[in-house]
Design goal:
The longest helix is centred in the N-terminal third of the chain and has 18 residues. The strands form ten sheets. The chain has a 22-stranded antiparallel barrel. Strands 11-16-17-14-15 form a five-stranded mixed sheet. Strands 1, 4, 7 and 8 form a four-stranded mixed sheet that branches. It contains 16 helices and 49 strands. The N and C termini lie far apart (75 Å). The chain is of the alpha+beta class. Helix 6 packs antiparallel against helix 10, helix 8 packs antiparallel against helix 9 and helix 10 packs across helix 15. Strand 21 and strand 22 form a beta hairpin.
């Protein structure tokens, strides 16, 4: 009996094994490009889901039961392929499958929202997606030019702002995390973005999340994230070469012109493009040029890609130059013979050499493209990083492991783009009266009588205008031709070169003891050239991520991150260190194939030098040394193309080493440290609705989102005058006297500080789609309007405190007493339209913005007043007074609603060669996104792309 039982059992197993001895195998390809699809699923139902996934070559092999089954081939972003199969016992069938990209609405695949692939329609937050073709049509010099065409995204002085989350934040670290393939590209030392680090020549897709994303991406994701995903090699080798040239036109106002034909011949430009010395030698206007070269291919089991970029921009503003050389690449090895499992590992590598300059104080209101002598500053920067990685995916149990690392090294130093004017040139420009100076040295002070009379009258009558008129009359006796810009030249020269130390003896007719060596240095400035001081920083980064999926639609994403930054400041002669350790967990669930739910948490520890509790937080009244943040969201599909979503997310941003410790200065302008600065934190809530539509030949979607953001301890810079001896802000007459007697001089610059609460809420409405006229003719469009209410939550308390100020040098927070935050408009509208007919593309960008609501107090005071105060005269000298125009009058005239238009024409000459012709700022509109930052005039651009 026992033998019969065993025999029966063996026969059953043999029969069962034979029923699954049939095999179906083949390859899965993209129907358009014939590229193999890696990780495509092949499934059928038999007592649950059964299946396999394709390997690196797109190959699959699946065991099937004898008889017939319905196979489903699926891949995210592609249309499912249903294949009924009838297979005989022990039969082996080979079938290749070609899958088409989905043409359904909202089927784009994104990874940024949850650190895993999902459809755009399923994400629980607002997200914009920019494809490689959209970028190519814009022909940008860096990716920020394309980003600023997106609704709700602004780039102000190179810093990103999403839905008003940031204004103009000179030197403050970015509140939006910028990623390249999931790795931060923000400067570890400053927290700022240098757009030159983004490999423009190799971008496949950009994903922009609007709202706090710190749970998955940590510090700096307070306002959202911008994730740039680079292209990976295909089956066929691909080489791409691009060359582009831009010429800045003349401004509408002829007074702004600062360059001529001799400028490059006399080496007055800080950088020199290759074409400047030959083809464009006769062009007087500034130009820029760029060359991109990239190559990608597969070699056996290796993915290999590399790219080069050379860009040189003379700048439409004097000293606003940029020169970069970047090279980088990727090497990925796909482990063979892994069955259903996928394993790849490799590294990304990048090197950037960069020279750039800019200024934020102009020379005068009639010389808006020329820098003040206080801002004669530039930077040289070289950085290198290598990012090793390992990815392992096991579809059998629905798990994946990802490890990413980075070693980053940077060396940078401040430079002077141009040699400052000599004292002899400065005095000559001012028409200095040598006889008057000689009389003063001989004891004749009659030239100062107008000043004494004016000051006396001002003190008696309480009229500051009389006093200042007397002072300027006296100075006019000595410098009869001087303008306010000339006085700035003189002040800047004194700040750079100093004065003889013993000036007190002049009252007794004694010359300073160090007069002769001081004069020698003045006449031979090269002897006094300071040694270049190079700052160096290194960054070590490690990130581990684990993902697990279940058949029920649930999945978890969890992991940990460690980052160490070491910064050696030559200027401060100090070494600064920071450490960041974090752990995160997120749960995602898909219910009934309609409802997506997501929730996550992150805990982060952060220290800088001996400040070991930078992330300290109170939990139920108990202080803990780490900061927890949370997020949650849901997305419900109401109908085929109707989705409603809601989300809540907390965010934070740790102050950078730069904001907390560093003192940067050249020409009197710089950043001043604040050891008391605290991390800023906040949250974002959103309710949105997305509706796809297909009306006749129109196809696209409309998205409406209401948002609310609140910040606590928000970090803003305060622009003002500082004592260079102790880095404190000059906030009173007594502070100014102490600065003068200390002999260290003053500086103009910014200091970061916390401004308590801010509230930003509003609504965004956008539509994106295409109109198909016929097979060869299409119209692509992307339109968006954003309304924001950027509230300063503490403005009433601040106004009450500032009303009690009695000292004329006490610095107020902003230019008015209104309820709005600085450097933000209320309304913006953007439209990008492209008409495509066969090989020709005609497109336009249109942008409209309302006026800026408030700026810094040091720049201007918009409060009503009976007469000018002392700060108004300080502004007049620092920011220029020319032909009756001051910064205040210029800003009042130009801070209005404005619209700009860019036009472009693209021609695809052949399958391999394409040309683009563009005119940016077509109407040559003069506008400013902040005081003293006048935008570029009309610019002409031509670009050539060759792909083979």
């Amino acid at each position: 009996m026992k033998k019969i039982y065993i025999l029966t059992l063996l026969l059953c197993f043999t029969s069962l094994g034979g029923s699954f001895a049939q095999t179906l195998k083949g390859h899965i390809y993209d129907a358009n490009t014939n590229e193999p699809l890696v990780g495509a699923a092949v499934t059928y139902k038999l007592q649950g889901n059964q299946g396999v996934v394709s390997d690196i070559h797109g190959a699959y092999e699946i065991k099937l039961p004898e008889g017939g089954v319905d196979l489903v081939f699926s891949y995210v972003g592609y249309e499912d392929v249903l294949m009924p199969i009838v297979i005989d016992r022990r039969e082996v069938i080979t079938k290749n499958v070609y899958m088409k990209e989905s043409t359904k609405l909202l089927e784009e695949v994104v990874v940024s929202a949850g650190r895993f692939e999902q459809k755009l329609s399923n994400v629980t937050v607002s997200m914009d997606v920019v494809k490689a073709g959209d970028i190519a049509r814009q022909a940008p010099t860096d990716i920020s030019s394309t980003l600023r065409t997106l609704p709700g995204v602004d780039i102000v002085d190179k810093q990103p702002s999403i839905r008003g989350g940031s204004g103009w934040t000179y030197g403050v670290g970015a509140r939006s995390q910028i990623l390249v393939d999931g790795m931060s590209t923000l400067n570890p030392k400053t927290g700022e973005i240098n757009w030159n680090t983004v490999p423009l020549e190799n971008i496949e897709q950009i994903e922009v999340i609007k709202g706090a994303s710190s749970v998955l991406y940590g510090s700096s994701a307070l306002n959202g994230i911008i994730n740039i995903r680079t292209a990976r090699p295909g089956l066929a080798p691909k080489t791409r070469f691009s060359a582009y040239l831009g010429i800045y036109g003349d401004a509408e106002n002829d007074e702004y012109q600062w360059s001529d034909k001799s400028f490059w011949k006399e080496d007055k430009y800080s950088v020199k493009p290759i074409l400047r010395g030959n083809l464009l030698s006769g062009v007087r206007n500034p130009i820029y040029e760029g060359f991109d070269l990239s190559h990608a291919r597969r070699i056996g089991n290796f993915d290999v890609s590399g790219s080069l970029n050379l860009f040189t921009d003379e700048g439409y503003r004097q000293q606003g130059y940029n020169k970069r050389f970047r090279m980088g690449g990727n090497l990925t090895y796909h482990q063979p013979d892994m069955g259903m499992k996928l394993l790849n590992y490799g590294f990304n590598i990048d090197f950037l050499s960069n020279q750039y300059g800019d200024f934020f104080i102009w020379r005068s209101p009639t010389e808006v493209y020329k820098p003040s002598p206080f801002t004669n500053m530039g930077r040289e920067d070289n950085n290198f990083h290598i990012d090793p990685f390992v990815n392992y995916v096991n579809p059998e149990n629905g798990t994946s492991h990802k490890i990413k690392g980075r070693f980053y090294y940077s060396a940078d130093n401040i430079v002077r783009p141009t040699q400052g004017a000599s004292i002899m040139d400065i005095l000559g420009n001012m028409g200095t009266d040598a006889q008057t100076i000689q009389n003063i040295a001989g004891g004749d002070y009659s030239s100062f009588y107008p000043a004494l009379v004016g000051i006396g009258s001002g003190l008696i009558n309480g009229n500051l205008e009389d006093a200042m008129n007397g002072v300027f009359t006296s100075l006019g006796n000595i410098f009869p031709n001087a303008t306010t810009a000339n006085y700035c030249d003189l002040i800047s020269w004194v700040m750079d070169n100093g004065l003889p130390s013993d000036l007190g003896g002049l009252t007794n007719g004694q010359l300073p003891g160090d007069l002769i060596p001081w004069v020698s240095d003045v006449l031979n400035p090269s002897r006094n050239t300071p040694k270049t001081q190079t700052d160096k920083s290194t960054n070590y980064y490690l990130d581990y991520q684990f993902n697990k999926k279940w058949d029920s639609g649930a999945q978890i994403t969890t992991g940990a991150t460690y980052e160490h930054v070491r910064y050696n400041s030559a200027i401060m002669d100090e070494v600064y260190k920071s450490d960041n350790i974090a752990a995160f967990f997120q749960y995602d669930q898909r219910f009934w194939d309609r409802l997506s739910v997501s929730a996550g948490v992150r805990a982060e520890y952060y220290r800088v030098n001996n400040h070991h509790r930078e992330a300290e937080t109170k939990i139920f009244g108990t202080k803990v040394p780490f900061r927890p943040v949370f997020r949650a969201g849901l997305n419900y599909q109401l109908a085929d193309y109707s989705f409603i979503r809601a989300s809540f997310g907390q965010g934070y941003r740790n102050p950078s080493i730069n904001e907390k410790y560093l003192r940067k200065d050249i020409g009197g302008v710089g950043v001043y440290p604040n050891l008391d600065i605290k991390p800023e934190k906040g949250f974002n809530a959103e309710l949105g609705f997305k509706q796809g539509y297909k009306i006749g030949n129109f196809q696209g979607f409309v998205d409406v989102a209401g948002f609310y953001t609140q910040y606590k301890d928000m970090v803003e810079f305060q622009f003002g005058l500082f004592n260079n001896a102790d880095y404190t802000m000059i906030n009173s007459i007594s502070d100014a006297i102490r600065m003068i007697t200390g002999g260290q001089g003053f500086g103009i610059g910014a200091q970061f500080h916390n401004v308590s609460k801010a509230q930003i809420y509003g609504v965004e409405i956008s539509t994106n789609g295409v109109y198909n006229f016929n097979k060869n003719t299409k119209l692509f469009y992307n339109l968006g309007y954003v309304y924001t209410e950027p509230r300063d939550a503490d403005y009433k308390e601040r106004n009450d405190a500032e009303d009690l100020y009695t000292d004329p040098l006490q610095m107020k927070e902003k230019s008015n007493t209104g309820k709005y935050l600085k450097y933000r408009p209320k309304h913006s509208f953007k439209a990008t339209v492209d008409f495509q007919w066969k090989r020709i593309n005609l497109g336009a960008n249109v942008a409209w913005k309302s006026k800026i609501l408030a700026v810094d107090y040091l720049m201007m005071d918009e409060r009503p007043k009976a007469q000018l105060d002392l700060m108004d005269y300080v502004r007049g000298i620092a920011f220029g007074y020319s032909k009756g125009e001051t910064l205040a009058t210029y800003w009042k005239k130009h801070n209005t609603d404005y619209a700009t238009v860019d036009m472009r024409l693209g021609v695809k000459a052949s399958k391999e060669v394409a040309f683009q012709f563009m005119v940016n700022n077509l109407l040559n509109k003069e506008y400013s996104y902040r005081p003293m930052a006048v935008a570029a005039p009309r610019t002409f651009v031509v670009k050539m792309d060759i792909t083979f």
